Prior knowledge:
By secondary structure, the chain is an alpha+beta fold. 31% of the residues lie in helices and 25% in strands. The chain has a 4-stranded mixed sheet with strand order 1-6-4-5. A hairpin with a 5-residue loop joins β2 (17-19) and β3. α2 (29-45) crosses α5 (97-107). The longest helix is centred in the first third of the chain and has 17 residues, at 29-45. It starts with a strand and ends with a helix. The mean pLDDT is 89.
Amino acid sequence: xxxxxxxxxxxxxxxxxxxxxxxxxxxxxxxxxxxxxxxxxxxxxxxxxxxxxxxxxxxxxxxxxxxxxxxxxxxxxxxxxxxxxxxxxxxxxxxxxxxxxxxxxxxxxxxxxxxxxxxxxxxxxxxxxxxxxxxxxxxxxxxxxxxxxxxxx
Length: 153
């Protein structure tokens, strides 16, 4: 298993990409900055880990985004005229695409090799992102057997 630790949380895909006039999508300045900095950080701080990635092998990737109470919960929930939902608008699955692309750039492994992707958000005191990766042709991840038993494959 590989564990990549990143400070902060990925930017939303809504801020990372824009639609081109003729069709298609491209990175915004903010998206390009995040992707470039994250790719560089991974390559610089995890050089041994990059050897873990081999082309045409299956991977399980788990993204855990640790957010603060302020990011997770609506302060005005339960108050007169306040928020109708306890949880603030924060689409956790919307946050991982650009990070997947940065990992792809750092490792030269196409993200289509990810056969299982799990995304989780939890509350903590400091925002951070943890990425856990298993090469499932070498070591089975702890999730596949559970999922297989539940869906009957």
